[in-house]
Design goal:
It is a single chain. This protein is mostly helical. Helix 7 (152-174) crosses helix 8 (179-205) and helix 7 (152-174) runs parallel beside helix 9. The protein is 73% helix and 6% strand. The two termini are 28 Å apart. The chain has a three-stranded antiparallel beta sheet with strand order 1-2-3. The chain has helices at residues 7-20, 22-43, 49-72, 79-86, 92-129, 137-143, 152-174, 179-205, 233-261; strands spanning 211-213, 217-222, 225-230. It has nine helices and three strands; from the N terminus they run ααααααααβββα.
Length: 264
């Protein structure tokens, strides 16, 4: 039998992982979907459909993914459960792959399908509620459209999701207690530190700036208006590739290495 991967053995492990904590795993996935639905329904009339779509998508995908990834490897919150998990007759690769599939594939697929359904439903209900005799019918109809799952906001959200879940998976293996809180504090500190570093670098290059968005642009006051200096196209693409592929890959691979090294 292959010591690294065996499909039958992996199937047993995957089934065990799902069935031994159904309330935690399935409950958290369901809660994430419900919260996304509630945010969409509550905010679409308060701030508009575009903002409600963006907020519900980000909170549902990133928030749900972060919480889910924090419990996938939380066996190590106690010595007994951690030791039991490490002695399971499965390879480290299979255990790591199990967490990756649950967090990175199953949850993502379920959320995107669910979100597309509720988004299409809300948009359809709005369009059907319009009065065709209204002189502004066309403008009102075209002002609300389905959320693009491959658009700009979705793309940035995927970047946030991959990096945040990768960091949380690592944290759940490095911190046996309160891993979610500890990782959240570290990520916030790194984000604030990176934002400040980016600001001071921009400040050293430009005499007068209003604000600097990390990695992408700098806003410069021009009289009573503001100008925006963007990264060159090639640099912007390089940043996107790094944040979407390279950094998440490193985080998820470090999770695998840490899982192999995990000891009490």
């Amino acid at each position: 039998m292959n010591d690294t991967f065996n499909i039958k053995r992996f199937g047993w492990l995957f089934k065990k992982t799902l069935l031994e904590r159904p309330v935690q795993l399935f409950g958290l996935v369901g809660l994430s979907l419900i919260i996304s639905l509630l945010i969409y329904a509550a905010f679409k009339d308060l701030v508009g459909y575009d903002e409600a779509q963006n907020l519900s998508f980000i909170c549902g995908l990133v928030g749900g993914g972060v919480f889910l990834s924090s419990i996938v490897f939380n066996y190590f919150s106690s010595t007994a459960s951690g030791s039991s998990y490490l002695t399971l007759p499965a390879s480290h690769f299979e255990k790591w792959l199990c967490g990756v599939i649950i967090t990175g594939i199953i949850f993502t697929f379920l959320f995107l399908v669910f979100y597309h359904i509720i988004d299409a439903t809300f948009v359809l209900l709005y369009h059907n509620s319009l009065d065709v005799k209204n002189p502004y019918y066309k403008e009102m109809y075209e002002s609300v459209h389905s959320f693009s799952l491959d658009g700009f906001i979705a793309g940035k959200t995927y970047i946030m999701y991959l990096n945040a879940t990768g960091a949380m998976l690592i944290g759940s293996l490095y911190f046996n207690k309160a891993s979610f809180i500890k990782v959240a504090l570290i990520v916030c500190a790194l984000y604030i530190g990176g934002h400040l570093l980016n600001y001071f670098i921009a400040k050293a290059v430009f005499d007068n700036i209003d604000k600097a968005l990390p990695y992408y642009c700098v806003f410069i006051p021009v009289g009573k208006e503001f100008g925006k200096v963007l990264l060159p196209g090639y640099a912007s693409v390089a940043v996107d590739i790094s944040l979407l592929y390279i950094v998440p890959a490193i985080l998820w691979l470090v999770t695998y290495v840490r899982l192999r090294e995990k000891e009490f």
